[in-house]
Structure formats: structure tokens, C-alpha cells
Amino acid sequence: MSAASRARVLGKLVAMIVVAGALVAGLLFPLVGGSGLVARNSASLLDALPVELTDATPAGNSRVLAADGSLITNFYAHNRTVVASDQIADVMKQALVDIEDSRFYDHNGLDVQGTLRAAVTNVAAGSVQEGGSTITQQLVKQTLLETADSAEERQEAIEQDGVEGLSRKLREARLALALEETYSKDEILTRYLNIVYFGQGAYGIQAAAQKYFSVNAADLTLPQAAMLAGLVQSPTNDDPITQPENGQTRRNQVLQRMFDLGHLDGTTEEQLAALMAEPVQVAPGISPPNGCIDAAIGGFFCAFMQQYLTQVLGISQEQLDNGGLTIQTTLNPQLQTLGDQAVLNTLPMGDQLAGMFTAVQPGTGAVLAMSVNRQYGCAEPQCESVVLHTAASKGSGSTYKVFTAAAALEAGIPASTVISTPGNQYTSRVFRGPSCGGDRSQSTGMYCVENAGNYPDTLDMVGALVRSSNTYFLALEDRLGSVEGPVRMAERMGMSFDQPTQNSADEIIDGNFGSFTLGAEATSPLDLVTAYSTLAAQGTQCDPIPVVQVFDRAGQPLTGDDGQPVVRGDQCTPNAIPANIANTLANILVGDTASPEGTGTRAAIPGHAIAGKTGTAQGRDSVAFVGVMPEYAASVMVFNPKEQQDVGGYGGNMPATIWHDAFAPFLADKPTSAFPPADPALMQGQPAPAPSAPAPDQGTATPDQGDAGRGDADAGQGDADGRPGNGNWGGGNGGRGGN
């Protein structure tokens, strides 16, 4: 040891003596005949104990669990898994006490004798052989450091020099005395072992045992315990993974100290020498997953859930990272896995086209799965950080016809109402917009839509829904006289129009956008399935929820500032729409998957009644399918999220196929219920009197009887500024499943 190094160590020794003297003079008096030192005024010390030290900090990692209890991921700022005293090997406790604070069980939080002895030992050795502070003092320092809210508080917790350093030592000493008055030795030791840093990103003994040896803290052996105990003083320099020789030297110092104190019962000097000759045997483990980017399953669901926790439930990210919470989610791992595979069966990972499968539980709003051919949060080409399931990106075409149908039924227009639209086109008498033929972008007359394919002139509401007729539903909007009914019905069923990419509901109504019924508005897949699940739940509308309960570190429901649990059950509105309307529409929509003329037959699964609806936006820029049962509901949307692209199919193609591929194996061992029967009055009611027929070139809208047509003719692209507007029209297909 050089003279300069020895001088520095001697300087620290002098400083320690000064601090020890100040502690004795200012805080303590000798307890004659006793084994340690006691506080002059215990009551005043306990009064000064901050909440950070009376609380059982730190809490450790927060865990996110799927519906079956399996781990999705963790959230943590520091990798720490808090364990109880009986989950830590006794040899680990002994090793730490022997090397850090051998008089731990004899003193009352301060150990002047031990401090001076450690200083002399360290000076003689030229390196740190023994800790100078007691474990209780170290616990105080580590706790105040980790719970500091500002850089100033963190600096105060580690200040070493001058008056500030002495002040910190005095405060630590006072709080250490108070801790000893409050907690048992075993509690203090356990808390210290749970908070101290062991290197390699491992905080606490359980994380360290896993990181270095891939074992639990309860199963640590003597050599392993000695290694970890030695890391506390210098986790980087003595790291047995990166610095194996230093690690072995430090481990041997701990073993020697334990032997000298008589704590290696039955071990001879020869056995000790043989043990110390062995190199450190590490078995490095991987760090637990952290955040949604590491999610074992459902990365996009995880991101949606995280946003829900912070923005809806009011849980801060700091609390999520450090609160030791347990988040019980609604994710169904089986359906999530099958949804993932179903999307990839149709669209490769990272394809320009994104396919979003989004499933919820009708009647509760529980989000069951969010699948897409993307990976969440990484930096590769196939990665995405936007949760496309919740983003309103593109229109969903004829899926919006259900809102017009529901509004019509509520207005007294029965499902038996037939409307004739000769020539597969219809010009509105209510809504303004592009006319049929010519340059539609320049037209400012009455709104006209066309059907693609051969449609019969006359359809009733049942046939028009199953075959997805544009002309019928624009004429039906005419009968309603305004778009307000369909828009408000959509809101009641669960649609929201509040994203920057969307027109608000009031804007759509004030503009009297006749294209609303053709799905021109940018739509999030989650909103879409939420609205349709209202039909499956007999009119009960439920907001989507990804979380069943959030538990605190003690296993109790987490409460907010008002003392109430932050999770308060389902967010459902019974009778958001009349049950007879919901049931009637559900029964009609079964025809979309079950009847030969339906556009969604590719989604059909034998033995299950599936109410479905296809949708295809203008220019096939986006395609969709929604299918619901009383127990399950899911939407599928396929589009290019970055630019306009012809998908190359219709809602009955890729979306219906993905829906089928996810649910067919999922339902193989699960029965589903039939929908309650349709209301005969809504199906067969008396149509309104026929209006005077307009000139044939304007189309007719009469209660005529006729055959139903076939085909899916959907619409909806946005204006140049990216906000969907009025005046859009649809192409479509003629045939089952969208050609």
C-alpha cells in the first residue's frame, strides 16, 4: 500500500472518529453494563421517523397477469422481487451480518466500537474489509436515496464531505435508533436484503440470486451467499461474472470472516482452504421482462392496458414502476395466441397491410385479445409503437349500416320495409354531395350512391343488411330525414368520435353527412367491436376494459385518494339501446354468415350462430368484418396504416377469414348460446305509407315487395386533409364472402 493511499485511508479514519465522537456527544450516552447504546429520548426519535422508513419500502416489481394468472410482463425501475424473511437462506443472512455488521444483534442501531474497529482493520489491510456503518444505518441511507423525489434529496442522502456530510451522518444515526425502537432485528435485516444493490441490475437478494446463480434466495449455498454478501460494498469491482478473480477474492474474505467469527460450524481450516480455492461458480440468469416491449404475449394489449392504468385509473407510472402492484387483466391467452396465428396465416409479419383482430366479451367489456402482424415497440421494420386497435385510422365501410338500421327500427320503420332503387343507384332527396357519373369530386348536387354488381331493384331491410346494399341504406337515411338518428345510435352502442382523425358526432350531424351510413368515418377496431357487442348483450353497452383488479403489495385492492378501489367493476350501461332492437338485429345479421347470399360466409363456424357484418371502404382502402355471439365478439380490420393502398379484396375476404381462423379452434370445446328471438313487431310492423314516386332517373323509394340481391357495396374514404367527410361512395362485390 502506497504512502498516499495510506494517508487517504488515515484521513477517512480521522473523519470517522470525529463523526463517532459527535454521535456520542450529541445523541447518545453509554448504557452502563449493557451491550450497546440507546437513544437519549426514544419518543422524539420515533416522532421524527419519516413515512419512507415506516412504510415497508421498497415494494418491488409490479406484475401484469393474464386472465388465467400467467405472467404477461413486469414494470419496474429497479429489478427487485421482495421476499419475506423465511424466503431468504439463513446462511445468506449470516454472511451479510458477518461482513457488514458483526455486532448487528448487539447494538441498538449505532455501533461506535464497531465503526472504529472497522476503520482500523481497513487501514491495516489497505482496502475495505469491514463496513463502517451498521446495517440499520445503511438501510436508512438506501431507503432515503431510493425514495428521494429530487436531485437535491438524492444528494443529501449521499453527502460525504464537510458540515453537510456530518449532518447526514447525524440524521442517519438518529433514524437508525428510531428504526431499532420500531422494528425487530430480523425485520431490519430482511428489509435491507430486499433493498440493497448487488450489481448486474439486481436490487434485493431475490433478484441477485436469480441473476448470478439462477436460484431463489431461499436456496443459496454457503459459497453463493458469501459471494453475494461481498458484493454489497463494491458490486462492479467484485462482479463474479465480469471480474471473476476479484469476485473470488472478495468471496474468500467473507468466508474467512465467517470462519473467524465461528459461524462455519464443523468446517476445519483445511476444508476452508479447499473451499476458498474453488473459483466462483456462476450460472447467470436473465432479467425478468420489463414493460410491454418484453411482454410474453399481447404486447399491444399490454400497451393499451398501460395507458388505461395511467390515464383512466389514475395510477402514475412511478407507482407502476415501483409500487409492487399486481394487475389482473382480462387477456385470454388462448384467444390471443390463436388471434396472432390467424392474422399471420393471412398476412406475414411486417407486411405493408396490417390486420387487427380485436376481441371483447359482450356484457362486461372485457378485452380478450389484440392481435396484429406487428411486434410492439422494437426498432425492426416489423415493429410498431402505435396501438392500431384503438387508433381511428380508416373507415370500416358497410359495418355502419347497422347504426342506420337500429335507428330506423327505433323510429318505427320495421325490418320488412322494402325500398326500390332501380338501376343499382340512388339519388338522395335529403343529403347533398357528389352525383353519380362524371367527375364526382366537382359535383355539388344531391348525393348519389351506386351498387357494384347486379342487385335487384327491390330489397327489404333484412336482405339489404345481409347483402350490404348502399342504395337501400341511403334511401333509408332519407326516410329518417337526417343523419342524427344513426349517429346518436352509434354513440349509444359504443362508438366514439373524439380522435383528431375523426369528425365529431356534432360535425357529422351539422354537416348532414349522408355517407355516414356507408362507413366513411375513420374508425378504431376497438370501437367497432364495442358497438357490435352491444347487440350481442341485448342492448347493454360496456366500455372496453383491460383490467379486472389492481392489488397493492399487500394483496389488497389498490385505492385512490378517495379511499375507494381504483377498479370499480364493469363500465356498462344497461338498455343503452332497447333489447328488442338489439336482438332483432343480431338475428338478422346471422344471415350474413349463415345464408348463401351473405357477404361474410367465410367466417361461419358450424354449430355456432354468428351475427356478422362486412365492410369495404372506398377504393378498398380498408376492409372489415365484425362477428358477435352472446359470449364473444371480435372485429377484424385490414388496411395500410401509413398510406392508401388497395387491399385487393373485400370485408368478406381477409377479415372474415382471419375471424374464422381465430375462433374455429377456440370454440372447438366451448359452447355458445343462440341469440334471443327477434321481436315480431320490429320484423313485420306496418310500413309507412308510400310517398309519391319521383321520376325514375332519381330512383324510387316505396314499400314494394321484391327479391333480395347479393353483394357487398361499401364506402368511405377521407377528404384530402385526412378527415373523412360527406360525399363518398362505394364499390363492392357481388357474391358470398366478398368474391
Précis, in short:
This protein has 739 residues and is an alpha+beta fold. It folds into two domains: 3-277, Penicillin binding protein transpeptidase fold (Orthogonal Bundle), CATH 1.10.3810.10; 343-738, DD-peptidase/beta-lactamase superfamily (Beta-lactamase, 3-Layer(aba) Sandwich), CATH 3.40.710.10.
Keywords:
single chain; 739 residues; alpha+beta; Penicillin binding protein transpeptidase fold; Beta-lactamase; 2 domains; 4-stranded mixed sheet; 25 helices; 38% helix; 12% strand; disordered C terminus; glycosyltransferase activity
Question: If you had to describe this structure to a student in words, what would you say it looks like?
Answer:
- This protein has 739 residues and is α+β, with helices and mostly antiparallel strands.
- It has two domains: 3-277, Penicillin binding protein transpeptidase fold; 343-738, 3-Layer(aba) Sandwich (Beta-lactamase).
- The strands form eight sheets. It has a five-stranded antiparallel beta sheet, with helices on both faces. Strands 4-3-5-15 form a four-stranded mixed beta sheet.
- A hairpin with a 5-residue loop joins strand 3 (62-65) and strand 4.
- 53% of the residues are buried.
- Residues 724-739 have a biased composition (Gly residues).
